[in-house]
Write a structure and sequence with these properties.
With about 90 residues, the protein is an alpha+beta fold. The protein has 1 helix and 3 strands, in the order ββαβ. It has a 3-stranded antiparallel sheet with strand order 2-1-3. Strand 1 and strand 2 form a beta hairpin. The termini are far apart.
């Protein structure tokens, strides 16, 4: 015969050891890293998301032109040329 008792639902409140902090993106991990890029022609500077850099590095690997430590050259949104280079600060 089956048991007719209902189980008690567990509390859905977060435990004290895992306190949720506002502004922290725990489910999706840390925020993406951004790299400083500068155009060699117009000197336009901007922060570039690591996802864009990863795609460019993957393309370089696919085309077999990737070398260790490669930082891709990107298109400048200001002068519309492929002149944005990684600017080490």
């Amino acid at each position: 015969m089956t048991n007719m008792k209902t189980s008690k639902p567990k509390s859905t409140e977060p435990s004290l050891s895992k306190k949720i902090v506002e502004g922290e993106d725990v489910p999706f991990g840390p925020p993406p890293e951004e790299y400083n890029y500068r155009c060699s022609l117009c000197q336009h500077e901007m922060k570039v998301n690591e996802a864009i850099i990863d795609v460019e590095i993957a393309m370089a690997e696919f085309e077999e032109r990737n070398v260790k430590g490669y930082m891709p050259v990107l298109g400048c949104p200001n002068c519309n040329r492929e002149t944005m280079k990684f600017a080490e600060d």
